[in-house]
Amino acid sequence: MSSTTLKCPICAHSLQNDQKNLSCVNRHSFDQAKQGYFNLLMSNKKRSKSPGDNIEMVLARQTFLNTGIYQPISEALNETCSQWITEHASTLEDPIRILDLGCGEGYYTERLYNALHPQSIELIGLDISKDAVRYAAKRNKQVTWLVASGAEIPVMPRSQDLIVCLFTRLMPEGIAPALSRQGTLITVTTGKQHLIEMREILYPSIKDQVLDPQVPLASHFKLDQQQAFQAKHTLTSSQQIQDLLAMTPHQWRAPAVGREKLLSLDSLTITIDVNISCFSLKEDQISPESL
Ligand SMILES: C[S@@+](CC[C@H](N)C(=O)[O-])C[C@H]1O[C@@H](n2cnc3c(N)ncnc32)[C@H](O)[C@@H]1O
């Protein structure tokens, strides 16, 4: 039996890990799925039968990400995390606790683990989509994979040193209690030019799709630093174009005529334009009463 930073989603007591089972003092018990993840999402917290990305999106994302086209984003994120750990080394306890919120099929989570290991880290990958977590769990057995919601993260209060969140809805009420007082939230969000070439083909006119992460996070977090990352890449097959489309909301948002035009191409140069932002908790969130 070993203690964990995981929290029982029913009574909020800490969960102990015994082989392939998590349980709390109130005997709420959660078995590990055979693929290696734990499902801590209560059915009364689900808004639909299968929340989050569906299997088609998961498989398209995995095929696309495995090509390595987005690897520079992963490298930039890993570098930001490494730098943060180096800068905070004197105040960090062993192990360093990191959570990837909305981890999807685990591409970035696995690469983050490999980049930071063999430093002593405990990494959790969490997503509301069971299909996504099933695939993520196949990537790495050292990461703790959870089906859960970012709106109510099942970890003990103030237990995580770093929370990373890539291309996922930002849920400050869920993230703030999970983060340690000196912890940092690192977001990766799309910039103005991201996939501009694809959007120009899909839509008769382009809407500005920039999400400033400060807007949804302002109630709980302050921005410490932000860095833009840009690159170009040429997709060289219609399959790559199809996978890229299928892993984005444009798959169901874009008009049929635009999608047909895009899918008739067998090459496409794309702009990758993302912002990596570091946030810390606002003063009023750090007080014990804020939990
Ligand atoms: C655009 S994908 C990004 C996945 C991964 N971070 C990546 O970049 O490859 C957004 C992910 O957020 C997940 N998601 C949506 N709502 C969520 C919630 N409330 N809690 C946790 N994950 C959620 C989806 O299932 C999906 O896997």
TrEMBL record:
Pfam families xref list: Methyltransf_25, Zn_ribbon_RlmA
Which residues of the sequence carry a binding annotation for Zn(2+)? C8, C11, C24, H28
Q: What InterPro entries has UniProt attached to this entry?
A: Methyltransf_25, RlmA_N, rRNA_m1G-MeTrfase_A_prd, SAM-dependent_MTases_sf
Residues spanning the signal sequence: none
Gene3D superfamilies xrefs: Vaccinia Virus protein VP39 (3.40.50.150)
Residues annotated for S-adenosyl-L-methionine binding in this entry: Y70, E105, G106, H194
In the UniProt record, does the keyword S-adenosyl-L-methionine occur? yes
What are the entry keywords? Metal-binding, S-adenosyl-L-methionine, Zinc
Q: Which CDD domains match?
A: AdoMet_MTases (cd02440)
Domain 23S rRNA (guanine(745)-N(1))-methyltransferase N-terminal, by residue range, is 7-49
Q: A single Gene Ontology molecular function, please?
A: methyltransferase activity
Q: Any keyword Zinc? A: yes
- Name of the molecule in the record: Methyltransferase domain-containing protein
Q: What is the lineage of its organism?
A: Bacteria, Pseudomonadati, Pseudomonadota, Gammaproteobacteria, Oceanospirillales
